[in-house]
Specification:
The chain has 486 residues and is mostly beta strands. It folds into three domains: 37-231, Jelly Rolls, CATH 2.60.120; 237-336, Immunoglobulin-like; 342-484. The protein is built from no helices and 35 strands. Strand 30 (394-407) and strand 31 form a beta hairpin. The protein is elongated and about 100 Å long.
Length: 486
Protein backbone atom coordinates (compact mmCIF):
# COMPACT_ATOMS: atom_id res chain seq x y z
CA UNK A 1 0.00 0.00 0.00
CA UNK A 2 1.46 3.36 -0.98
CA UNK A 3 1.38 6.10 1.64
CA UNK A 4 2.20 9.69 0.69
CA UNK A 5 3.51 11.81 3.55
CA UNK A 6 2.01 15.33 3.57
CA UNK A 7 4.16 18.26 2.47
CA UNK A 8 4.84 21.40 4.56
CA UNK A 9 4.17 24.87 3.28
CA UNK A 10 5.84 26.58 6.23
CA UNK A 11 8.87 25.74 8.36
CA UNK A 12 8.26 26.67 12.01
CA UNK A 13 11.24 27.27 14.25
CA UNK A 14 10.70 27.70 17.98
CA UNK A 15 13.48 29.61 19.73
CA UNK A 16 13.90 29.53 23.50
CA UNK A 17 11.47 28.36 26.09
CA UNK A 18 8.14 29.59 27.36
CA UNK A 19 7.32 33.12 26.26
CA UNK A 20 9.91 33.20 23.45
CA UNK A 21 9.06 34.15 19.88
CA UNK A 22 7.93 31.73 17.22
CA UNK A 23 9.31 32.48 13.73
CA UNK A 24 7.57 31.41 10.54
CA UNK A 25 9.96 31.15 7.61
CA UNK A 26 8.72 30.56 4.04
CA UNK A 27 9.88 27.29 2.59
CA UNK A 28 11.65 28.37 -0.58
CA UNK A 29 13.02 24.97 -1.55
CA UNK A 30 11.06 22.26 -3.32
CA UNK A 31 9.05 19.89 -1.16
CA UNK A 32 10.30 16.32 -0.73
CA UNK A 33 7.61 13.65 -1.02
CA UNK A 34 8.02 10.15 0.41
CA UNK A 35 6.07 7.17 -0.92
CA UNK A 36 6.37 3.76 0.72
CA UNK A 37 6.07 0.42 -1.10
CA UNK A 38 5.94 -2.68 1.09
CA UNK A 39 6.06 -6.20 -0.31
CA UNK A 40 3.65 -7.65 2.27
CA UNK A 41 1.24 -4.70 2.41
CA UNK A 42 1.06 -4.49 -1.38
CA UNK A 43 0.74 -8.27 -1.86
CA UNK A 44 -1.69 -9.71 -4.38
CA UNK A 45 -2.96 -13.24 -4.87
CA UNK A 46 -4.64 -12.10 -8.09
CA UNK A 47 -2.21 -10.09 -10.23
CA UNK A 48 1.38 -10.69 -11.31
CA UNK A 49 2.82 -8.23 -12.14
CA UNK A 50 1.11 -6.52 -9.24
CA UNK A 51 1.62 -2.80 -9.80
CA UNK A 52 5.32 -2.17 -9.20
CA UNK A 53 5.95 -5.72 -7.91
CA UNK A 54 6.57 -8.92 -9.91
CA UNK A 55 7.04 -12.37 -8.33
CA UNK A 56 9.37 -14.34 -10.60
CA UNK A 57 11.52 -17.33 -11.43
CA UNK A 58 14.45 -16.10 -13.48
CA UNK A 59 12.99 -13.38 -15.71
CA UNK A 60 9.53 -14.95 -15.87
CA UNK A 61 6.50 -13.90 -13.80
CA UNK A 62 5.19 -16.93 -11.93
CA UNK A 63 1.61 -18.18 -12.36
CA UNK A 64 -0.78 -18.38 -9.42
CA UNK A 65 -1.34 -21.81 -7.91
CA UNK A 66 -4.61 -21.40 -5.94
CA UNK A 67 -3.93 -24.37 -3.62
CA UNK A 68 -0.20 -24.87 -3.31
CA UNK A 69 -0.21 -28.47 -2.05
CA UNK A 70 3.46 -28.67 -0.95
CA UNK A 71 2.43 -26.56 2.06
CA UNK A 72 -0.72 -28.14 3.52
CA UNK A 73 -2.23 -26.00 6.24
CA UNK A 74 -5.54 -25.42 8.01
CA UNK A 75 -6.52 -23.05 5.23
CA UNK A 76 -5.97 -23.13 1.48
CA UNK A 77 -2.59 -21.51 0.70
CA UNK A 78 -2.18 -19.93 -2.73
CA UNK A 79 1.34 -19.33 -4.05
CA UNK A 80 3.08 -17.91 -7.08
CA UNK A 81 4.86 -21.04 -8.31
CA UNK A 82 5.43 -23.08 -11.50
CA UNK A 83 2.89 -25.72 -10.41
CA UNK A 84 1.78 -27.85 -7.48
CA UNK A 85 3.40 -30.97 -8.95
CA UNK A 86 6.19 -32.82 -7.20
CA UNK A 87 9.53 -31.89 -8.75
CA UNK A 88 8.14 -28.70 -10.26
CA UNK A 89 6.62 -26.62 -7.46
CA UNK A 90 9.64 -24.36 -6.87
CA UNK A 91 10.48 -21.56 -6.61
CA UNK A 92 7.41 -20.30 -4.78
CA UNK A 93 6.39 -16.97 -3.32
CA UNK A 94 3.44 -16.77 -0.93
CA UNK A 95 1.91 -14.67 1.81
CA UNK A 96 1.09 -16.98 4.68
CA UNK A 97 -2.58 -17.40 5.51
CA UNK A 98 -1.93 -19.12 8.83
CA UNK A 99 0.46 -19.08 11.77
CA UNK A 100 3.39 -21.54 11.73
CA UNK A 101 2.25 -23.60 8.73
CA UNK A 102 4.09 -26.94 8.71
CA UNK A 103 6.07 -25.71 11.71
CA UNK A 104 7.68 -22.80 9.87
CA UNK A 105 8.66 -19.77 11.91
CA UNK A 106 6.09 -17.67 10.09
CA UNK A 107 3.02 -15.76 11.18
CA UNK A 108 -0.08 -15.04 9.16
CA UNK A 109 0.67 -12.16 6.77
CA UNK A 110 4.40 -12.89 6.43
CA UNK A 111 5.84 -13.17 2.92
CA UNK A 112 7.81 -16.38 2.31
CA UNK A 113 9.90 -17.58 -0.62
CA UNK A 114 11.17 -21.13 -1.18
CA UNK A 115 14.30 -21.30 -3.32
CA UNK A 116 14.91 -23.94 -5.98
CA UNK A 117 17.28 -26.91 -5.87
CA UNK A 118 18.37 -29.78 -8.11
CA UNK A 119 15.49 -31.95 -6.95
CA UNK A 120 12.65 -29.49 -7.26
CA UNK A 121 12.50 -26.64 -9.73
CA UNK A 122 15.78 -27.55 -11.39
CA UNK A 123 14.43 -26.30 -14.70
CA UNK A 124 13.18 -23.05 -13.19
CA UNK A 125 15.06 -19.80 -12.80
CA UNK A 126 16.27 -18.25 -9.56
CA UNK A 127 13.64 -17.11 -7.08
CA UNK A 128 13.37 -13.33 -7.15
CA UNK A 129 10.98 -10.45 -6.70
CA UNK A 130 11.40 -7.16 -8.53
CA UNK A 131 10.16 -3.61 -7.95
CA UNK A 132 9.97 -1.44 -11.08
CA UNK A 133 10.34 2.27 -10.46
CA UNK A 134 7.30 4.34 -11.48
CA UNK A 135 9.17 7.63 -11.02
CA UNK A 136 12.39 9.59 -11.18
CA UNK A 137 13.92 10.26 -7.78
CA UNK A 138 15.91 8.60 -5.03
CA UNK A 139 15.00 5.68 -2.80
CA UNK A 140 15.95 3.83 0.36
CA UNK A 141 15.71 0.07 0.76
CA UNK A 142 15.03 -1.59 4.10
CA UNK A 143 13.99 -5.01 5.29
CA UNK A 144 15.32 -8.35 6.44
CA UNK A 145 15.28 -12.11 5.87
CA UNK A 146 15.46 -15.23 8.04
CA UNK A 147 15.46 -19.01 7.66
CA UNK A 148 12.07 -20.28 8.74
CA UNK A 149 13.31 -23.63 10.09
CA UNK A 150 16.54 -25.30 11.23
CA UNK A 151 17.06 -28.38 9.03
CA UNK A 152 20.62 -27.88 7.78
CA UNK A 153 19.91 -25.66 4.79
CA UNK A 154 21.00 -22.21 3.66
CA UNK A 155 20.39 -19.41 1.17
CA UNK A 156 22.15 -16.34 -0.13
CA UNK A 157 20.19 -13.11 -0.54
CA UNK A 158 21.24 -10.41 -2.97
CA UNK A 159 19.77 -6.96 -3.61
CA UNK A 160 20.45 -5.54 -7.08
CA UNK A 161 19.77 -2.39 -9.08
CA UNK A 162 19.32 -3.12 -12.78
CA UNK A 163 21.24 -6.38 -12.38
CA UNK A 164 24.18 -4.89 -10.43
CA UNK A 165 24.56 -6.02 -6.81
CA UNK A 166 24.06 -3.40 -4.12
CA UNK A 167 24.67 -5.70 -1.16
CA UNK A 168 24.22 -9.34 -0.14
CA UNK A 169 24.46 -11.82 2.71
CA UNK A 170 23.94 -15.43 3.80
CA UNK A 171 21.47 -17.12 6.13
CA UNK A 172 21.64 -20.75 7.15
CA UNK A 173 20.54 -23.27 9.73
CA UNK A 174 22.17 -22.56 13.07
CA UNK A 175 22.81 -18.85 12.38
CA UNK A 176 21.69 -16.32 15.02
CA UNK A 177 18.83 -14.99 12.92
CA UNK A 178 15.12 -15.70 13.34
CA UNK A 179 11.80 -13.96 12.83
CA UNK A 180 12.24 -11.82 15.93
CA UNK A 181 15.86 -11.05 15.06
CA UNK A 182 16.22 -11.31 11.26
CA UNK A 183 19.25 -10.51 9.09
CA UNK A 184 18.67 -6.85 8.20
CA UNK A 185 19.71 -5.81 4.70
CA UNK A 186 21.55 -2.84 6.21
CA UNK A 187 23.98 -5.34 7.80
CA UNK A 188 24.81 -6.92 4.47
CA UNK A 189 28.16 -7.01 2.69
CA UNK A 190 28.27 -3.32 1.74
CA UNK A 191 26.67 -1.82 4.83
CA UNK A 192 23.68 0.51 5.18
CA UNK A 193 25.07 3.21 2.87
CA UNK A 194 24.57 0.89 -0.11
CA UNK A 195 20.81 1.01 0.42
CA UNK A 196 20.29 4.73 0.99
CA UNK A 197 19.74 7.61 -1.46
CA UNK A 198 19.80 5.37 -4.54
CA UNK A 199 19.07 7.42 -7.67
CA UNK A 200 16.49 5.82 -9.97
CA UNK A 201 14.64 6.68 -13.13
CA UNK A 202 11.30 5.44 -14.40
CA UNK A 203 11.67 1.76 -15.36
CA UNK A 204 14.71 1.00 -13.19
CA UNK A 205 14.48 -2.32 -11.35
CA UNK A 206 15.29 -3.25 -7.75
CA UNK A 207 15.60 -7.03 -7.41
CA UNK A 208 15.82 -9.33 -4.39
CA UNK A 209 17.25 -12.74 -5.28
CA UNK A 210 17.17 -15.81 -3.04
CA UNK A 211 19.60 -18.60 -4.07
CA UNK A 212 20.23 -21.82 -2.14
CA UNK A 213 23.77 -22.43 -0.87
CA UNK A 214 23.15 -26.02 0.18
CA UNK A 215 21.99 -29.13 -1.67
CA UNK A 216 18.38 -28.25 -0.96
CA UNK A 217 16.69 -24.87 -1.07
CA UNK A 218 14.38 -23.84 1.74
CA UNK A 219 11.80 -21.35 2.97
CA UNK A 220 12.91 -17.81 3.75
CA UNK A 221 10.85 -15.15 5.48
CA UNK A 222 11.07 -11.80 3.72
CA UNK A 223 10.44 -8.21 4.78
CA UNK A 224 11.10 -5.70 2.00
CA UNK A 225 10.25 -2.00 1.94
CA UNK A 226 11.21 0.59 -0.66
CA UNK A 227 10.73 4.26 0.17
CA UNK A 228 10.99 6.72 -2.69
CA UNK A 229 11.81 10.40 -2.25
CA UNK A 230 10.84 12.82 -4.98
CA UNK A 231 11.23 16.58 -5.15
CA UNK A 232 8.26 18.64 -6.27
CA UNK A 233 9.81 20.94 -8.84
CA UNK A 234 6.87 21.26 -11.23
CA UNK A 235 3.89 23.53 -11.04
CA UNK A 236 0.32 22.24 -11.06
CA UNK A 237 -1.67 21.77 -14.24
CA UNK A 238 -4.75 23.86 -14.96
CA UNK A 239 -7.61 22.38 -16.96
CA UNK A 240 -11.36 22.54 -17.57
CA UNK A 241 -11.26 26.32 -17.90
CA UNK A 242 -14.84 27.46 -18.54
CA UNK A 243 -16.37 30.93 -18.75
CA UNK A 244 -20.13 31.20 -18.44
CA UNK A 245 -21.84 32.54 -20.40
CA UNK A 246 -19.58 32.31 -23.44
CA UNK A 247 -20.31 34.07 -25.68
CA UNK A 248 -21.49 36.85 -23.40
CA UNK A 249 -23.39 39.98 -24.27
CA UNK A 250 -21.77 43.27 -23.39
CA UNK A 251 -22.39 44.44 -19.81
CA UNK A 252 -22.67 40.82 -18.59
CA UNK A 253 -20.38 39.48 -15.84
CA UNK A 254 -18.78 36.06 -16.35
CA UNK A 255 -18.34 33.12 -13.98
CA UNK A 256 -14.88 31.64 -14.55
CA UNK A 257 -14.16 28.10 -13.28
CA UNK A 258 -11.20 25.77 -13.64
CA UNK A 259 -9.38 22.83 -12.04
CA UNK A 260 -5.83 23.20 -10.73
CA UNK A 261 -4.19 19.83 -10.05
CA UNK A 262 -0.70 18.86 -8.82
CA UNK A 263 -1.31 15.10 -8.70
CA UNK A 264 0.88 14.38 -11.73
CA UNK A 265 3.43 17.13 -11.12
CA UNK A 266 4.65 16.60 -7.57
CA UNK A 267 1.66 15.97 -5.34
CA UNK A 268 1.80 19.19 -3.31
CA UNK A 269 -1.25 21.04 -2.08
CA UNK A 270 -2.53 23.92 -4.20
CA UNK A 271 -1.90 27.26 -2.52
CA UNK A 272 -3.25 29.82 -5.02
CA UNK A 273 -4.90 30.16 -8.42
CA UNK A 274 -5.21 33.21 -10.66
CA UNK A 275 -6.42 34.39 -14.04
CA UNK A 276 -5.38 37.06 -16.52
CA UNK A 277 -7.15 38.84 -19.37
CA UNK A 278 -5.37 39.39 -22.67
CA UNK A 279 -1.92 38.98 -21.13
CA UNK A 280 -2.52 41.52 -18.36
CA UNK A 281 -1.89 41.28 -14.65
CA UNK A 282 -3.04 38.15 -12.87
CA UNK A 283 -6.04 38.34 -10.56
CA UNK A 284 -6.63 35.97 -7.63
CA UNK A 285 -9.21 33.20 -7.85
CA UNK A 286 -10.97 31.39 -5.00
CA UNK A 287 -11.19 27.72 -4.05
CA UNK A 288 -14.76 26.59 -4.68
CA UNK A 289 -14.85 24.84 -1.29
CA UNK A 290 -13.51 27.95 0.43
CA UNK A 291 -10.00 26.75 1.30
CA UNK A 292 -6.88 25.88 -0.65
CA UNK A 293 -5.86 22.65 1.10
CA UNK A 294 -5.99 19.86 -1.49
CA UNK A 295 -3.71 18.48 -4.21
CA UNK A 296 -6.50 19.20 -6.70
CA UNK A 297 -8.72 22.26 -6.36
CA UNK A 298 -11.77 23.49 -8.23
CA UNK A 299 -11.34 27.26 -8.47
CA UNK A 300 -13.61 30.12 -9.43
CA UNK A 301 -13.72 33.87 -10.02
CA UNK A 302 -16.18 36.46 -11.23
CA UNK A 303 -14.90 38.35 -14.28
CA UNK A 304 -16.35 41.86 -14.50
CA UNK A 305 -18.58 42.71 -17.44
CA UNK A 306 -17.09 44.10 -20.65
CA UNK A 307 -18.51 47.35 -22.00
CA UNK A 308 -17.47 46.71 -25.60
CA UNK A 309 -17.60 43.78 -28.00
CA UNK A 310 -14.40 41.84 -28.48
CA UNK A 311 -12.67 38.47 -28.22
CA UNK A 312 -10.60 38.08 -25.06
CA UNK A 313 -8.02 35.51 -24.05
CA UNK A 314 -8.57 34.31 -20.47
CA UNK A 315 -5.71 32.31 -18.90
CA UNK A 316 -5.59 30.42 -15.60
CA UNK A 317 -2.63 29.07 -13.64
CA UNK A 318 -1.94 27.79 -10.13
CA UNK A 319 0.86 27.67 -7.58
CA UNK A 320 1.56 24.73 -5.26
CA UNK A 321 2.91 24.56 -1.71
CA UNK A 322 6.45 24.20 -3.08
CA UNK A 323 6.08 27.64 -4.72
CA UNK A 324 5.97 26.14 -8.21
CA UNK A 325 3.69 27.97 -10.64
CA UNK A 326 2.32 25.84 -13.43
CA UNK A 327 1.69 26.65 -17.09
CA UNK A 328 -1.31 28.71 -18.09
CA UNK A 329 -4.39 27.18 -19.69
CA UNK A 330 -6.23 29.64 -21.91
CA UNK A 331 -9.60 29.97 -23.59
CA UNK A 332 -11.20 32.61 -25.78
CA UNK A 333 -14.20 34.50 -24.48
CA UNK A 334 -16.39 36.22 -27.04
CA UNK A 335 -18.21 39.36 -25.96
CA UNK A 336 -20.79 40.51 -28.47
CA UNK A 337 -23.10 43.43 -28.96
CA UNK A 338 -26.44 42.19 -30.33
CA UNK A 339 -27.15 45.68 -31.62
CA UNK A 340 -23.90 45.91 -33.61
CA UNK A 341 -23.43 45.26 -37.32
CA UNK A 342 -22.92 42.05 -39.27
CA UNK A 343 -20.31 40.78 -41.71
CA UNK A 344 -20.36 39.33 -45.22
CA UNK A 345 -17.56 38.27 -47.51
CA UNK A 346 -16.64 36.39 -50.63
CA UNK A 347 -13.43 35.99 -52.60
CA UNK A 348 -10.23 34.04 -52.95
CA UNK A 349 -6.56 33.97 -51.97
CA UNK A 350 -3.49 31.80 -52.54
CA UNK A 351 -3.33 29.20 -49.77
CA UNK A 352 0.24 29.21 -48.36
CA UNK A 353 2.50 26.27 -47.56
CA UNK A 354 1.76 24.76 -44.18
CA UNK A 355 -1.89 25.80 -44.13
CA UNK A 356 -3.26 22.39 -45.14
CA UNK A 357 -1.74 20.21 -42.42
CA UNK A 358 -2.29 16.77 -44.03
CA UNK A 359 -0.01 17.95 -46.87
CA UNK A 360 1.99 20.97 -45.66
CA UNK A 361 3.67 21.60 -49.02
CA UNK A 362 0.36 21.94 -50.83
CA UNK A 363 -0.54 25.38 -52.19
CA UNK A 364 -3.33 26.59 -54.46
CA UNK A 365 -6.33 28.82 -54.83
CA UNK A 366 -8.69 28.93 -51.86
CA UNK A 367 -12.19 30.38 -52.15
CA UNK A 368 -14.58 31.54 -49.44
CA UNK A 369 -17.99 32.98 -48.88
CA UNK A 370 -19.78 33.84 -45.64
CA UNK A 371 -22.44 35.82 -43.86
CA UNK A 372 -22.82 36.09 -40.10
CA UNK A 373 -25.25 38.24 -38.11
CA UNK A 374 -27.49 38.38 -35.07
CA UNK A 375 -31.21 38.42 -35.59
CA UNK A 376 -33.17 40.68 -33.30
CA UNK A 377 -33.33 39.27 -29.76
CA UNK A 378 -31.12 36.27 -30.57
CA UNK A 379 -28.15 35.21 -28.43
CA UNK A 380 -26.53 33.12 -31.20
CA UNK A 381 -25.74 34.35 -34.71
CA UNK A 382 -27.04 32.88 -37.94
CA UNK A 383 -25.60 32.65 -41.42
CA UNK A 384 -23.51 30.45 -43.67
CA UNK A 385 -19.80 29.86 -44.27
CA UNK A 386 -18.27 28.01 -47.19
CA UNK A 387 -14.55 27.42 -47.77
CA UNK A 388 -12.93 25.37 -50.52
CA UNK A 389 -9.37 24.32 -51.30
CA UNK A 390 -9.80 22.54 -54.59
CA UNK A 391 -6.27 21.09 -54.84
CA UNK A 392 -6.88 19.28 -51.56
CA UNK A 393 -10.46 18.23 -52.41
CA UNK A 394 -11.55 20.08 -49.27
CA UNK A 395 -14.99 21.64 -49.13
CA UNK A 396 -16.07 22.99 -45.75
CA UNK A 397 -19.65 24.04 -45.00
CA UNK A 398 -20.87 25.46 -41.71
CA UNK A 399 -23.78 23.96 -39.78
CA UNK A 400 -24.03 26.03 -36.59
CA UNK A 401 -22.65 29.34 -35.40
CA UNK A 402 -21.70 29.75 -31.73
CA UNK A 403 -20.83 33.44 -31.55
CA UNK A 404 -20.01 36.55 -33.57
CA UNK A 405 -18.01 39.57 -32.47
CA UNK A 406 -17.86 42.73 -34.58
CA UNK A 407 -15.51 45.40 -33.29
CA UNK A 408 -14.58 48.25 -35.62
CA UNK A 409 -13.03 46.88 -38.79
CA UNK A 410 -12.66 43.37 -37.36
CA UNK A 411 -15.16 40.53 -37.27
CA UNK A 412 -14.67 37.08 -35.81
CA UNK A 413 -17.07 34.19 -35.46
CA UNK A 414 -16.94 30.56 -34.41
CA UNK A 415 -19.00 27.47 -35.20
CA UNK A 416 -19.06 23.91 -36.44
CA UNK A 417 -19.52 22.23 -39.80
CA UNK A 418 -18.53 19.40 -42.10
CA UNK A 419 -15.84 18.66 -44.67
CA UNK A 420 -17.18 17.10 -47.86
CA UNK A 421 -20.43 16.48 -46.04
CA UNK A 422 -18.87 14.38 -43.27
CA UNK A 423 -17.42 14.70 -39.79
CA UNK A 424 -17.61 17.16 -36.96
CA UNK A 425 -15.31 20.12 -37.44
CA UNK A 426 -14.91 23.34 -35.52
CA UNK A 427 -13.99 26.55 -37.28
CA UNK A 428 -12.92 30.07 -36.38
CA UNK A 429 -13.12 32.78 -39.04
CA UNK A 430 -11.52 36.19 -38.63
CA UNK A 431 -11.93 38.96 -41.20
CA UNK A 432 -10.83 42.57 -41.63
CA UNK A 433 -12.77 45.09 -43.71
CA UNK A 434 -9.97 47.23 -45.10
CA UNK A 435 -12.27 49.98 -46.30
CA UNK A 436 -13.46 51.25 -42.95
CA UNK A 437 -11.60 53.08 -40.19
CA UNK A 438 -8.88 50.91 -38.71
CA UNK A 439 -8.99 48.37 -41.54
CA UNK A 440 -5.67 49.37 -43.08
CA UNK A 441 -6.89 49.64 -46.66
CA UNK A 442 -6.89 45.92 -47.57
CA UNK A 443 -9.31 43.12 -46.77
CA UNK A 444 -7.76 40.24 -44.82
CA UNK A 445 -9.01 36.75 -44.10
CA UNK A 446 -8.15 33.81 -41.86
CA UNK A 447 -9.94 30.53 -41.28
CA UNK A 448 -8.92 27.80 -38.86
CA UNK A 449 -10.61 24.39 -39.11
CA UNK A 450 -10.06 21.51 -36.65
CA UNK A 451 -11.37 17.97 -36.26
CA UNK A 452 -13.41 17.78 -33.05
CA UNK A 453 -13.49 13.97 -33.24
CA UNK A 454 -9.68 13.62 -33.11
CA UNK A 455 -8.63 15.80 -30.17
CA UNK A 456 -9.11 19.04 -32.12
CA UNK A 457 -6.42 18.22 -34.68
CA UNK A 458 -5.96 21.22 -36.97
CA UNK A 459 -6.87 20.45 -40.58
CA UNK A 460 -6.47 23.90 -42.09
CA UNK A 461 -5.17 27.27 -40.89
CA UNK A 462 -3.78 29.86 -43.28
CA UNK A 463 -2.08 31.54 -40.31
CA UNK A 464 -0.84 28.40 -38.60
CA UNK A 465 0.89 28.98 -35.28
CA UNK A 466 -0.70 32.35 -34.54
CA UNK A 467 -2.97 32.73 -31.54
CA UNK A 468 -6.69 32.61 -32.12
CA UNK A 469 -6.93 36.24 -31.08
CA UNK A 470 -4.38 37.45 -33.64
CA UNK A 471 -5.50 39.72 -36.49
CA UNK A 472 -5.45 38.07 -39.92
CA UNK A 473 -2.48 38.80 -42.17
CA UNK A 474 -3.56 37.13 -45.43
CA UNK A 475 -4.64 39.79 -47.93
CA UNK A 476 -7.31 38.41 -50.23
CA UNK A 477 -6.50 38.39 -53.96
CA UNK A 478 -10.03 39.00 -55.09
CA UNK A 479 -13.51 39.62 -53.76
CA UNK A 480 -14.61 41.74 -50.84
CA UNK A 481 -15.20 41.64 -47.05
CA UNK A 482 -17.82 44.08 -45.72
CA UNK A 483 -18.78 44.90 -42.17
CA UNK A 484 -22.29 46.33 -42.29
CA UNK A 485 -23.74 48.78 -39.80
CA UNK A 486 -27.19 47.82 -38.54
Amino acid sequence: MKRCLPGLARLMLLFGGLGQAVMFLPLSVSIARATTYNLAADWSDIDNPNGVWTYREGTNPLPLIPNWTPLPSPVIQPAWAPSADSGNFLPAWFKSRSNNPEGLEVLMGDVVVHSTDDFNGRFSGIANVIWTSPLNGVLDISGAVWMTRDIGRGNEWNLLLNGVSLTSGNIFSGDPFNRANPFHFANGLNGPAALNAIAVSIGDVIELRIVRTTTFGDDVGVNLTITTITQDEEGPLSSNVVASPNPAAINTALLLTATVNDTLTGGSEIMTAEYSLDGGNFIAMNAQDGTFDEVSEAVTATVPAFAQAGVHEVCVDGTDAASNTGPVECILVAVYDPTAGFVTGGGWFDSPQGAYTPDPLLTGKATFGFVSKYKKGATSPTGMTQFELIVADLAFYSDVYEWLVVAGARAQFKGTGTINGLGNYGFLLTAIDGQISGGGGTDKFRIKIWDKNTSDTIVYDNQLGSSDSADPTTVIDGGQIIIHAK
